[in-house]
Amino acid sequence: MEIIKTTKLTKYYGKARGITQLDLTVTQGEFFGFIGPNGAGKSTTIRTLLGLIAPTSGSAMIFGKDVTKEKETILQNIGYLPSEALFYQGMKVKDVLKLSADLRKKDCTAESKLLCERLRLDTDRKNDDLSFGNRKKVAIVCALQHRPKLLVLDEPTIGLDPLMQKEFFDILRERNKEGTTIFLSSHILSEIQHNCTRAAIIRDGRIIACNSVEALSKTSVKCITVHGSVPLERLSGVRDRKDTEGSVRFLYSGAMDSLLRVLSSVQVDDLTITEPDLEEIFLHYYEKDGETV
Ligand SMILES: Nc1ncnc2c1ncn2[C@@H]1O[C@H](COP(=O)(O)OP(=O)(O)OP(=O)(O)O)[C@@H](O)[C@H]1O
């Protein structure tokens, strides 16, 4: 079953591009990653998807319902964690959590208690006195305590210490195993790699790749290190060149026989050919000439 489906979803802020012609489908039970550089359009996608801002054109459906027409019903079954959590001033954590549960007309006391214990959140403190990370925890509990069918998380771990990040992802994986669909927006590659099964990459407001994380991580690009002087200008498909004393390291997507021809024409003391690491692969998608869809 399709939980999220956008068709040519487009949002312009006046003349400024937010997102253009976004086609995205997330099915039930997926742990879906949404990744892209700053300003790519991740938050705009999420806000438009949830009906928080109106699209310029195109459509967004959640649970098979149009978000512009049935927003209230849809949001009842969603847990949304915005990238910046803002709360009413002067309220204690427990009051914020109760208010959030009441707005959904649900008794979330038991689940809220459990989540606060796991995230080590002191509910007697005032929101105003909390650190950024602890405010983030309040937002997490607000998003999770009513056990929604769909979690939409916008940069959820910013501000959390590594221990809390681990606990948070443990909770998410448990929820996902129980059937919750998760849409995780992040620019932390390892978060996507370790938790998501499928991911879309957004750049300049457009989806440039959407596939299983495994497939996205596979590429014909090789990482080459050569000890010796190599006339790389004679090769096409070379990028990310790094020169160190006596050696050069680069990513290579050209023909292997061309590389070997060039290498055989010069003195080579050592040669290593390896797979690039995940970070290098994703950077390739971010680059202007890395269009892959
Ligand atoms: N309220 C707004 N008014 C005008 N332009 C906006 C507004 N909100 C976002 N934009 C623009 O839309 C584009 C996408 O921004 P968005 O915040 O969705 O990106 P993002 O991928 O979430 O970025 P980041 O990772 O930095 O949070 C950017 O060029 C941004 O400047």
UniProtKB/TrEMBL annotation:
Start and end residues of each ABC transporter domain: 4-229
Keywords noted in UniProt: ATP-binding, Nucleotide-binding, Transport
CDD domains linked to this entry: ABC_DR_subfamily_A
PROSITE patterns: ABC_TRANSPORTER_1, ABC_TRANSPORTER_2
Coiled coil: none
Any one GO molecular-function label of the UniProt entry: ATP binding
Keyword ATP-binding: yes
Signal peptide bounds: none
Pfam families: ABC_tran (PF00005)
Origin: domain of life: Bacteria
PANTHER family: ABC TRANSPORTER ATP-BINDING PROTEIN (PTHR42711), ABC TRANSPORTER ATP-BINDING PROTEIN NATA (PTHR42711:SF5)
Family stated for the protein in its record: Belongs to the ABC transporter superfamily.
Protein's recorded name: ABC transporter ATP-binding protein
Organism: Dorea acetigenes
